Amino acid sequence: MNNNRMSVDRTKLYKFPWSKTDNQCGWIEVTDFCNLHCRGCYRHRLDGHRPLEEIKEDIRRCQELTNCDGMAIAGGEPLQYPEIVEVVRFIKENKMKPVMLSNGVGLTGDLLKELKKAGLMKIHFHVDSNQDRPDWNGTTEIEMNDLRQHFADLLYKHGGVQCGFHITVCRSSFKYIPDIIKWSRRNMHKIQHISLIALRGIPIEDDVEYYVNGRKIADDEVLNKFTDVSQINITTEEMYDILKSEFPDSDACAYLNGLSIPEINKYIVIVYVGSRKKVFGVLGRKTIEIVQVISHLFTGKYLSFFKNPVAGRKLFLLSKFDSLLKKTFINYLREVRRKPSLFLNNIYTQTIALQQPIEFKDGKKVYCDPCVNFMVYKNKLINPCQLDEYRLLGSPIEVVKINKKTREHKIK
Amino acid sequence: MTLDRKKLYKFPWSKTDNPGAWIEVTDRCDLSCPGCFRHRIEGDRPIEELKEDILLCKKITNCDRIAIAGGEPLLYPHLIEVVDFIAKNDMKPMILTNGESLTLDMAKELKKAGLFQYYFHVDSGQKRPGWEGKNEIELNALRERFAQIAWDSGRVQCGYNITVFRSTLKYINSIIEWGRKNIDKVQHISLITFRGLHNDGKKKYFANGKQIDLSRLKIGQKKLSEINIGTEEIYDIISEDYPMMKPSAYLAGSAKPETYKFLIIINLGSKKKIYGVLGRKTVELNEISHHLRRSRYQAGFENPKIGKKIYLLSLFDKEVRKSLGRFLLHALIRPAALFDSVYLQCVNIQQPNEFIDGEKNLCDGCVNMMIYNGDLIHSCQLDEYRFFGGPIQEIKKLE
User: Fold this and answer.
1) Which of B336, B353, B333 has its CA nearest to residue B271?
2) 20 to 30 A Cα–Cα from A270, which one of A360, A395, B28, B352?
3) Minimal Cα–Cα distance from A236 to chain B, Å?
4) Is the ipTM of this complex over 0.85?
């Protein structure tokens, strides 16, 4: 086993039921042009803006293959794409939930209104301290919370578009995880989602060789390479540990494992339950399971996210099946007794996803099982994290660990 | 005919939340079947190592059932102990066997140890002693003999693995017909398309960064026309004679998600008459209700003698509703049908491990993952690990 730490007990977590052909979300890239240069970015500028018709075809094909409920519009920076409103509208018309992944630069109230009218349901803003934003002087993650607050307030003011954040976690910013979460817990009504994504890269090591299509590639052909492995080996367990030490109520409810090393937790998901500014606790594995299977049973799709971010007090009905939610409910009642005005407040949920993206470990390339962001490239379903391996090298990079101990046999 | 995926349920299984897992007790065998991908290298494995692998498998895959495979498990001296160990660890032991050395006494002992199910591998490619030259129709007699042993030993569930070749496609419906007549004793039929590797001279094979010699593997160098039977082709043959046998669920290919690696049809009926099949909603309800209650997915049916309560699901499931209609109509003609027992029987069309356009197309949600050197691997790839240290890759030669 790769993991002797006991901080994550899988028997208490729900493995999401998604797979390649029955998945909650698809992925489309509209452009590879971007106005920022973020640390950890794995996309190269090669093609610029893509033709709208091609994008539409890929969206339909992705829906057909993955049965997705949501469609992430990514890039590059989607707001730079001239026909972005039309893309959102097309996704909505085809009965999927459009979600945009954006750095937020250039998002004005007017553009937001237009996107909302076209059917945009959610924006995940990528905001962290390693983006070198020209219009922002903040340097630590604590200061970046001010910019995040600006975006959250903007969406809240206009209403109707949910708000999430993507934050790349580097060794230098790791210690600020509790500060980010402390901030997000005070904004339960404004923020529906936080992804903490460990910095990724391909390690250059003595005992490792990389191949593409049977050809060994030189170190300088390796995309996104790192010689200092300690920069790119942050795990979800580490993030979970630091989060739990500050907020002991943050029990996880669900996970995704690594494909070639199933012991790795690629996703650890925590769902907070609270009123506007106060968290009462979390929900547990059975609630998330009931939500997924009921959604699939009645709509034929797994749920990407709820249309309405307000869960309401009816959520507590499920505490009959879920001991964590029951604890949260009891805590809620206690708080209401202390401060009865809380009862007038609504009940919100906020998802925290700790993510460990594509990695090379023990001579294996480890994807998420399943990837939740499959995209179509040349009519084929691929992992977006591999797109530039196809575009620049023709095929995915394979890894071989030399001198690995194996039990090779000779025929008797 | 192309299948409409919207009408099929994709099983929610994955590596770490799977109804099935796999253990090989020996690589010795007393037959040499043409589609076999296992080589005799190590012989019988130490029982303690097996127990470790079983526990690790359970921990990683959360499995409900473990398939005891090989080689031929009946040749393994500590088989009873393995069955007992799996059952005592709260999983269902299943044996994959050719049945050659199975006696009623042994079957009774296995039942006592907790055996849940047999999958008998019986097909005409095996050239069994005493059955040489017999076709699939004639082999139904042998299948019936094994079914009887499983039944007599205490109604242990009974399934069959049947490798399908180009030459035996024409017999598929005779096997289906035989299965339908024995729905009380036969719970499962897997029709597995013959697989191998085909090198047209334009490909190279690699493992672990090194080019390898494919001829070391039994499955190397087959004719393309022999190894390209698809699940949908078999389904078409079945639906010609049995139009009501519609699939309800599937597993897709890992590299080519458009392909069907598992296509599941579940017959519903009595020994006298098959009334129809289960639809996707019933299969889905069965999976999720088991998982909600027991926190793991279910392999096969707990009780294949399902009874008439299954018709209650007519409310949600069009196929069950149709079956109920046929049942009631039939009962008008033959009122005694009202007292017949109602059974389920699974027909699974499988397309195993294959290369398509240079990519290895495995089952997405493989139910037969196994432990090898502490790692979870696809059992169909075991000998690639044993020979070459890792799975093989196909690469088109550059022009």
Assistant:
1) B336
2) A360
3) 17
4) yes
